[in-house]
Design a protein that fits this description.
Blueprint (H helix, E strand, L loop, with lengths): L1 E6 L5 H11 L3 E6 L3 H7 L11 H8 L4 E4 L2 H7 L2 E4 L19 H13 L4 E5 L7 H11 L6 E5 L9 H6 L4 E5 L3 H14 L8 E5 H32 L3 H9 L20 H14 L3 H28 L8 E5 L14 H11 L3 E5 L5 H9 L22 E3 L3 H5 L4 E4 L11 H6 L6 E4 L6 H7 L2 E4 L6 H4 L6
Parallel strand pairs: 1-2, 1-4, 2-3, 4-5, 5-6, 7-8, 9-10, 9-12, 10-11, 12-13, 13-14
Bound molecules: 1,4-dihydronicotinamide adenine dinucleotide.
Enzyme class: oxidoreductase
Family: Belongs to the UDP-glucose/GDP-mannose dehydrogenase family.
GO molecular function: NAD binding; UDP-glucose 6-dehydrogenase activity
């Protein structure tokens, strides 16, 4: 029986391996992690991540050909194929701080693989890594190999959180990069035969190592760029009276452009976009391409602009101060159908409002109070380290309360900020909410999900990103 081991039981390692186990009953899959609590959760009824459909997949294979364990060395020793899906945070100190990828966790995983291996192995980069990481990993493995042969493959993951299981069942493509040597090509074929058990062959793309590594960074940069492009347009729409939804629909019907990823919002978040673009920027700078670096940097600058623009709108509309006013925050996750808060725009918006001394009452159907408090008190980029290396008891932000109901969050509030597009926020009883709020009552829709006209009829003053402004808002320009 072929044995696969995946180092890193996170948002990528857990779901991808569960789907491989489901689709390949003849392969034994072990997912290992240094975090004891994470592995315990994978072995319990309360999985460590929320992802539609994941529970069913895990339940049908766990204990049969899918195992979660902290015995990293044993499973690496036994495996024929070792996936590495560990954190690759942005460096916070030293050379490349604030941009370059920190490969500490990757390097320690590679050294461990070299240490414990007694048979030839295929080592697969699943984490998103800088171009040429495979070369560094190869060096670590071969210099410590004691005669064992390793083949390095790059197999970046393209799943999107919230639709991870659907994406893994029906990926647009699977990408496998390897060395163009007979051994490299053989390793590519071996991994290809795993995916071929459920993915049509023509959708399994094979390339050289560097193309596969760079394609992942490029894909994320292109996706984030679409969001920043439409968000940049949203500011112009507000200034001119155009409606960004009409503009993006008209633009997206051009088949060369396409309709996806053109929703204006308070900004993109998630663990990957910013981190991967910063990494891309750094690689461009290191390769003497400052113009290319500047071009991609702008995607992040517009995202930051969009978040601060939103905060300015809130504060300016409410007579230029939110000091001691209760503001309800509906949604904290970076998008709907996930409990993931990494780099969520809600962090920056909340911090902006706290900077103006607001009292925040936050509700998200999938995010815990502990997580929200952590996120609001953590230093930039600290989130992307294994959980047991993060501060254990973060300081509580006093002006923040976390509640388990949208009606509780909005009671006596002066304003509501909708920061995640959860479906349930579309169908709240806004009449009831209005009656229980301070007047004038404001709704700032950072995701364009509510029917602004209906809310205006109830009596709300409504701000929708990129839509023609209420007379009230026109009179209160949000200048930083
Ligand atoms: P995560 O933080 O959820 O999981 C990483 C896991 O690796 C943690 O549980 C950590 O404890 C473990 N770990 C770190 N060092 C280890 C070691 N030496 N031995 C054993 N376990 C170790 O991260 P996530 O989101 O799964 O991301 C992993 C990689 O995949 C990153 O490079 C990310 O950029 C990339 N990626 C993430 C996507 C996403 O949607 N989250 C999508 C595609 C790629």
């Amino acid at each position: 029986m072929v044995k696969i081991c995946c180092i890193g039981a996170g948002y990528v390692g857990g779901p991808t391996m569960a789907v491989i186990a489901l689709k390949c009953p003849s392969i034994e899959v072990a997912v290992v992690d240094i975090s004891i609590s994470r592995i315990a959760a994978w072995n319990s009824d309360q999985l460590p991540i929320y992802e539609p459909g994941l529970d069913d997949v895990v339940k049908s294979c766990r204990g049969k050909n899918l195992f979660f364990s902290t015995d990293v060395e044993k499973h690496v020793f036994e495996a024929d194929i070792v996936f590495v899906s560990v954190n690759t945070p942005t460096k916070t100190q030293g050379l490349g701080a604030g941009k370059a990828a920190d490969l500490t966790y990757w390097e320690s995983a590679a050294r461990m693989i070299a240490d414990v291996s007694k048979s030839d192995k295929i080592v697969v980069e699943k984490s998103t890594v800088p171009v040429k990481t495979a070369e560094a990993i190869e060096k670590i493995l071969t210099h410590n190999s004691k005669g064992i042969k390793f083949q390095i493959l790059s197999n970046p993951e393209f799943l999107a959180e919230g639709t991870a299981i659907r994406d893994l069942f029906n990926p647009d493509r699977v990408l496998i990069g390897g060395r163009e040597t007979p051994e490299g090509l053989k390793a590519v074929e071996t991994l290809k035969s795993v995916y071929a058990q459920w993915v049509p062959e023509e959708q399994i793309l094979t390339t050289n190592l560097w193309s596969a590594e760079l394609s992942k960074l490029a894909a994320n940069a292109f996706l984030a760029q679409r969001i920043s492009s439409v968000n940049a347009m949203s500011a112009l729409c507000e200034a001119t009276g155009a409606n960004v939804q009409q503009v993006s629909f008209a633009v997206g019907t051009d088949s060369r452009i396409g309709p996806k990823f053109l929703n204006a919002s308070v900004g993109f978040g998630g663990s990957c976009f910013q981190k991967d673009i910063l990494n891309l920027v750094y690689i461009c700078e290191c390769n003497g391409l400052p113009e290319v670096a500047e071009y991609w940097k702008q995607v992040i600058k517009i995202n930051d602009y969009q978040k601060s623009r939103f905060v300015n709108r809130v504060v300016a509309s409410m007579f230029n101060t939110v000091s001691n006013k209760k503001i309800a925050i509906l949604g904290f996750a970076f998008k709907k159908d996930t409990g993931d808060t990494r780099e969520t725009p809600a962090i920056d918006v909340c911090q902006g409002l706290l900077g103006d001394k607001a009292n925040l009452s936050i509700f998200d159907p999938q995010v815990t109070e502990d997580q929200i408090q952590r996120d609001l008190s953590m230093n930039k980029f600290d989130w992307d380290h294994p959980i047991h290396l993060q501060p254990t008891s973060p300081t509580t932000v006093k002006k923040v309360s976390v509640v388990w109901d949208a009606y509780e969050a909005t009671k006596d509030a002066h304003g509501i900020c909708i920061l995640t597009e959860w479906d349930e926020f579309k169908n709240l009883d806004y009449q009831r909410i209005y009656e229980n709020m301070q007047k004038p009552a404001f709704v700032f829709d950072g995701r364009n999900i509510v029917d602004a006209e209906k809310l205006r009829e109830i009596g709300f003053i409504v701000y929708s990103i990129g839509k023609p402004l209420d007379a009230w808002l026109k009179d209160m320009p949000a200048v930083a």
